[in-house]
Design brief:
Length: about 140
């Protein structure tokens, strides 16, 4: 499947989700009550979220998909500098395709395109990513 087709399908799914929940503002309002402070995450739960949210671009093993998502196992210099809180903050906002630090030119959607994720879910994803990274 081509990269553009994958992105269009993923974007379509996000749009359908947002429409079904009354738009982005309604989703964010619903999530405001569910947000919890980031704490040490549960890597096992994070793996499940990763498989359904992040693997499309970063691959099921976290080693990246050519031209889509970066390899998370073999950390980039940027990733090595980030603590867990910074990674959670990054995942929340994503990265625009035209961002100079974006090496693929493909945007990373906020929260991987899954606006239902809580801070605790994101902490779990980061715990999983840390568990698969080469030291």
């Amino acid at each position: 499947m081509s990269r553009k087709l994958i992105l269009l399908v993923a974007l379509g799914a996000v749009i359908m989700f947002l429409v079904g929940y009354g738009g982005a503002n309604a989703v964010m309002a619903r999530l405001a009550d569910r947000q919890q402070p980031a704490a040490a995450g549960d890597a096992a739960h994070g793996r499940e979220i990763f498989k359904t949210t992040c693997a499309l671009c970063h691959g099921s093993s976290g080693r990246g998909m050519p031209g889509l998502g970066k390899d998370l196992v073999n950390q980039s210099a940027w990733m090595q500098k980030q603590d867990d809180a910074a990674l959670i903050a990054f995942i929340k906002v994503g990265r625009a395709g035209e961002d100079p630090l974006n090496e693929t030119g493909i945007p990373m959607l906020p929260m991987g395109g899954n606006p239902t994720l809580t801070d605790a879910d994101l902490a779990d994803v980061v715990a999983y990513i840390r568990s698969i990274q080469k030291k």
